[in-house]
Structure formats: C-alpha cells, structure tokens
Amino acid sequence: MAELRGDLEQIVGGTHVLTDPDVVAGYVTDWTGNWHGHTAAVVRPANTDEVSRVLARCHRAGVAVVPQGGNTGLVGGSVPLHGEVVLSTARLNRIEEVDALGCTLAAGAGVRVADAQRAAAGHGLALGVDLASRESATLGGIVATNAGGIAFVKHGNTRAQVLGLEAVLADGRVLTRWAALPKDNIGYDLPGLLTGSEGTLAVITRVLLRLVFPAQATATVLVGVDDAGAALSLRDAILEAGLTLEAAELMTDDGLDLVCAEKDLRYPFDDRAAYTVLLEVSGPDDPEGSLVEVLARCAGVVDGTVEKGHAERLWHYRESHTESAASSSVTPVLKLDISVPVREIGGFLAELPELLRADHPGIRPLNFGHFADGNIHVNLLDVPPEQREEVTDAVFRLVAQYQGSISAEHGIGRAKNPWIGLGRSPVDLAMMAAIRHAFDPAGILNPHVLRFD
User: What's the rounded Cα separation, in Å, for the pair 301 and 73?
Assistant: First the structure.
C-alpha cells in the first residue's frame, strides 16, 4: 500500500491523497450515521485523465475502489467498509457550459446539484431534478443512484435527464458517449445503463444533462384529507382542471404532529386530518384561483391553505420531516425508501403501523413521500440496533406483498443487498451479474454494493 500511495500521489499530487484518520473521517461514515468503515486512502483526482490513471494503477494492484460524490446516500453505497481506496469526485466540480438554445448543461461529476440549478437558472432554465440534499449531493451521485426527488412527478427520474456521460472503466479506459441529441439511436443505451449503477460499472466523471423550462405561474396548497383515496382524487381533479403537477407530497397526521412539536410550528388546520397533502401546481392563467375551485368541489377535503408561487412556509412542513425524525429518535432513524402501486398506498400505509404495533410496539413509524408516483419514505424511529435487520425484513416483505419495490430512488447500496431477490427474479439477477462482470471482470469497483450472488 505504501508503494501504491506513492504512485497515486504522483498522479494527483500529495495533498490530494488523504490518509490522516481525522481528515478522512467524513469519507468513511455515511450521512445516516449507520455505516462506518475505513480506507487505505482517499484520492481526489482533478479530471478524467487523473481518474483514468488512478483506476488503472489500482486495477494493476488488485485494490478495490469505492467512488464517492457528496456522500449523502441513505443505503451505505459510498462508504469503504473494508479498507477500499475512496475515489472522491469533489474536484471534478467545473460547470463547463449551459447551452440555452439546446437546453443542456455540461458539467463535472463533482458539481453540486444546487450549483447546477443556479447555473441553469441564470439562463432562464432549470434542472429537471430537485431533492432536499441539493446543497451537498453531486451530479455524478444523482446519476449513479438514478435519484428521483420532488420533481419526479413532472420530469421523471435522473435517467430521463441524461443525454450523455463520460466515465472511466475499472481498468482505466475512458468511455465517452457525448452528444447533445434528443434522438441518438445507435446501439445500446450505455448512459442509461450507467445511470443507477451505483459505481459498480464505471466512475462517472462528466455529465451532459437536458434542462427544462421552469413554470412561470405556480401555486402551492397544503390540504388535509380523510384518506389516501381522497389525496389521489384531488390529484386527478387538479389534472382534469388543466393544471400541471410540479410536486405531490403526502404526510401522515402523526408525522405532521412530530414536525409541529420539533419545529414549534402551528398545526396548519382547524380540524384534524388523517393525511396532509402538499401540492405545487402550475398553469397558464391563475393556478391559485383554479386550485381554490378544485378544493371546493373535491370530496374528502378537511381543510386547506392555498398560496401563490413556491410557498416556502407551506413547504417547511414537508421538508422538516427528516430533521424532525432524526432529532426525536433515540437511535439512528431506519430509512427505508420504497414504492408501491399508487392504488395500494392507502392499504400499505394502514397496514404498516399495525404490523409494527403487533411485533415491535416501541418503534414509531414516520411515513411521507411522493405519493403521485407511489414512493413512500418509511422512517422508523427508536429501532433497537439489534432489531434493525429483523424490522427491515418485515417491512420489505410487506412491500413485496403489495407488489412494490424495496428501492424507489436511493439505490440498493449495502443496506438493501440482502433483500435484492424480493424485487428481481433469478434470471434477472443473473443478467445483471453478467453485465457487471463484462464491465469489471476483476470486481474492483464498489465490490460490496449490488451483489447478485
């Protein structure tokens, strides 16, 4: 390892090969605090050529490498648990171009999502992906995990935004698929394959993303409803009124109570509601007035508040859930990002608390998420460390009963790998294993993530 570290220093410079335990501490612990590891070194290359040389040298040495962006993942997918070299993309942070005519953004994988959003906004455009960790998550990270986020309901996931990529294979070869073409139908969709591969097929170094036009007139509503069916009916009524959904979020009454207590907020309605829906919509004329009309004729609506534009006051109720859960729980929050068919949301949300009360009465569920696409963020508070695996298994098996997915938008990582068979058949797993072996026969890239055996 001493010889390897010396060679890596020759490639990226001595100041960018980190080994001091205090300095590398942030690279070996994940955002949730559940995954802790160790590394032989953290290497921070400055460009694709340096990434290529680093990977080629590690490949010759047979040393495993864990790619890492903003380290904001929730499934332990970017933490070196067994001494792997960490390849940080932090220095690949240049925004190369915003093409206002072609509506594209070219940037390094280490560019923060928020910086990309600001660069696009400077040209009257927007990034089609938004998420709460925007100030720390990187473009390479959201591509590698195929992130979803609050804008999914309108623009789709990250894969839908990717036009091209530059990536380095495990042996150091550089793969470049880079064409700002909406239609380019030559062979396999390799950028689409690398999107969501969680650093197991290649290290993404540059990204070419499509940009979108932001809505000009928007309105936000926070509304209490009797049940999940009423939330879906409200969604349909909004679409039938000719409005466009910009975001659609669902919160439970227990979750809203917790947020109000932790953040010293007033409960937003005069009457109690089983669920609270946050909707942001856009329209050509008066979306605020149209929302009021829709609410007036929808059954199951308990109460509501409508505000013009992107109402941060109303969004605060939704965006405070994660922080409130963390500050309230006596153990690290068990985060299980899942999805179920939209028609099954009500049944799943009703059955999950019953399951926990019967078998794990001390655990508090806090469920919220992007209900229009069936994505629920299951947050479990006060889970004893020795019960985390058992509880995870119970929740995932319930998800499978509802024909759902154990991973909606955060990937598999290490945390969900034991349950990957719940969502994929043996033939499916075998094909993915073959693809991985074709890209990385030596198995040095993120070797403990997305295991198919």
Answer: 36
Q: What is the pLDDT of residues 163-173, one digit of tens each?
A: 999 999 999 99
Please give the class, per CATH, of domain 2-88: alpha beta
pLDDT at res. 2:
86
Q: Where are the domains of the chain?
A: 2-88, 95-212, 218-319, 329-417
Residue 54: pLDDT over 80 = yes
CATH class of 218-319: alpha beta
CATH of 95-212, picked from 3.30.465.10, 3.40.390.10, 3.30.565.10, 3.40.50.1000, is 3.30.465.10
Cα distance between residue 95 and residue 284, in whole Å: 32
Instruction: Give, in degrees to the nearest 5, the angle at Cα 41 between 40 and 45.
Output: 150
Taking only the tens place, the pLDDT of each residue in 401-431 is 999 999 998 899 989 999 999 989 999 999 9
Fold observed for domain 329-417? Alpha-Beta Plaits (3.30.70)
Cβ neighbours for 360, distance < 8 A, ≥ 6 positions apart: 383, 387, 391, 394
Tokens of residue 299, six digits: 């059954």
Q: In angstroms, what CA-CA distances link 88 with 13, 78, 97, 164?
A: 14, 10, 22, 21
Same fold, 2-88 and 95-212: no
pLDDT digits (tens, 9 = 90+) for 100-152: 999 999 999 999 999 999 999 999 999 999 988 899 999 999 999 999 988 99
